[in-house]
Fold this protein.
Amino acid sequence: MHTSTYRLQVNGAFSLEDAARLVPYLKELGVGAVYLSPVFAATPGSTHGYDVCDPTRVNPEAGGEAGLETLARALQENGLGCILDIVPNHMAADSRHNLWWRDVLALGPDSPYAPFFDIDWHPRKVGLHGKVLLPVLESSYGETLTAGELHLEKRGGELAVVYRDLDFPVSAASTRKALEQTPGETVAEKIRALNGVAGEAGSFDGLHALLEAQFYRLSHWRTALHEANYRRFFDVSTLLGIRVERPEVFEAVHARLRDFARAGFLTGVRVDHVDGLRDPAAYLVRLRELLRDAAPEREPYLVVEKILQDEEELAPDWAVEGTTGYEFLSDLNGVFVESRGLEKLRNIAKGFIGGKNDASQDAEETRIACKRLVLSLLMRSELNLLADQLDRLSEADRGARDFTRDDLRRAIGDTMACLTVYRTYGCDGRISPFDARAFEAAAAEAARRNPSTDPSVFRFLRKVFFSFEETGTDPLPAIPRPGRLAFALRLQQSTGSVTAKGVEDTAFYRLPALLSLNEVGSSPASRGGTAARFHARMQARRGHFPHAMLATSTHDTKRGEDARARLNILAAHPEKWRVALNNLGRELSEPRQRAGLLPSDELFLYQTLLGSWPVTAKGRPAPAGDEFRERLETVWIKATRESKLQTNWVRPDEGYEGGLRDFLAYLLMGPGRITLEKFLLPLLETCAREGARFALAQLACKCAAPGIPDIYQGSEFWDLSMVDPDNRRPVDFEARQTSLSDMTKWLDPDADPSGRLEWARKRWEEWPDGRVKQYVLARCLRWRARYPEVFLEGDYTPVEATGKSRAGALAFLRSFGETELLVAIPLRAKAHGVAGQLLLPDDWADVPVRHLFTGSEFIPAKRGKVTGLDLAPLLAEFPVAWLWKSPAGDARPYTP
């Protein structure tokens, strides 16, 4: 089992060979396994790899097969594992590089690859029968054709339709017919005639007839919002859902993965977007069996990208070690947010935004409204397909045949909007009580919100959905059960996408009271957390999924882990935030009005500045250069489009976005900089300094909690990144390697304790350079590797704090036999100075224990019937503490 993982984004700019060169550094850091982004052949130029074109080949842009062999050799030589991120839900709709898809476009339903893709060949729109919609044109089909932007070319000995940098195959039969009917002596002359004359509509009649004879229909990209007849990834029309539940598709998609497992270097798999699969539980069983068969000597490590809402738990029967850790991120982040300050921040935001926004400050209402908006704006084609499916089913039942398609669509859409979890998992006669209650509650709430709709429509929807359950009496005997199951399964596959787009990518950008809560796996409605709840969650994790990942930054988080830590400080200083906003509002009134800013967008900007602004070596705001301004501008424009209040991705408001750019330039490069320096940047200094303490606390806790800590690339230094693509910027690994090399002596467990204290304090004094974080991380990861049983199998025991420290600190024990680790971290911005004790087991009394970060020795004392350790000197010495207690004579060697 891996003791930790380190996430690397491989692509054309950071290749597999680059990753191989980094392996010795990762080993020195203490990492147990490299965790790679998808490595299969993707759309050329892809920076993330999730747009896979060919799962049978390694991405040539990232180094291809040779690059992977180089990395595999480096991993095996250094004893590191390899976890690979795979994409079983979708592929890129790239007609040139995805040969499976190209074959479907050429042969239609008769292609052997047609069953690979989730296509409705008989949709409601008659013009799409036997065709697949290709929404790739920048203007309407007619305009594009008449402008001469569509033309025929010989490509690789075959005729193809070319549009800009895209090309599409032409079926052989239609080619023969078109050439026969077109005047000309040679094929080249006939092609020239078919290609017409730009601006002369009639000259394109032949080409239009040829295009009409294809198994696809070229259209404006916006038509996908309403008429796409294939399952997409979220609302992305260039990503096609694949039917991995079919055995032949599963085998084709996973053939190379099996090869990697047989080769010995692949030790684990992370499954992307598990909620998009038809039956995740069955898929995961099949995947585990494939990996076991390929490498029977090793049990595969499997985790899924699954976002759990509130008290939702991962299905215990899934054949996985757990999730990638977003629920842990939420649990851990919450304990650093002071609940009383959080409520004040919400009131401040409400006052700042007032009635000037369409965005409600009620998180639940905003969530439902945004999911409804996404269904109407971005995912209506998915909703239409479901409505068509349910409408066809209703025709077979005398009690439902009068339901209109509009009523059925409204019932489906509003039930999806009211669902409080990403999806349910009913399948093959089973649905869990939790999932059943979740769907029942959603349907009931949707019915309540639609008093003008016949309630029996919602009752019918529930009956069809619960076809999962095999009961004695069939509630809909007239409707064949396979059709009902097909609808219910497709509905479940769709709800996760609606939630992701509606909540993560819309509501999160409308509720800017405290952006550190607007995170994947968390909620703007959070009330913060308590030590007691955190302990309960960790004990449950230890009992059910002790080897799940522990994440604090990923490629999908909305901001870096240390940016969140900074923003959490605002809950400790709500009045300072109120004063800053009042002053900014007064001083920037004119440029704000000139830009026409929505208050919620403005509030988002100020918090993003606080979270991401770089600081100097002395902890003061650094100059904001062009690079930072450009990064911030990109993120702010993205945020305003995601909020969909004034601008959006479908129809960007260029005037509004121009005002945003002007306002940002005024703030950072113009006269507004003086206002920032006077009213916002002093608060930034507080947030940066106190946030660094919180950042070390979350790191020390993450590395000791039950599970496998995952480190996102580069975050061994401060991670103040913003939402993607900002969090995928190149990492300066050379600086990190140099820094680690300089501290090697202090990573040695046998280094001089007194010297370690002085050195560690110096690192904390120089916190802005980030080396203190790398030091804490390396010490933690190396210690995990030295004593894996404590962290992978050990017990988790809450430790109570007394006095003023009760709410100001969090502590727990990890123990295996006589070996124990005490973790103590501050939960409040100034907790390092509070009085109080940690109450410890009696066997800690009078036993010298070593502070692993400073080398200092502490001796818990027994006073009366209680064994305790004073917190004040512990957390004053260094921001966080790991105290180690092991049997006499335990001098286990560790060789990185």
About this structure: The longest helix spans residues 481-504. The two ends are 17 Å apart (CA to CA). The mean pLDDT is 94.
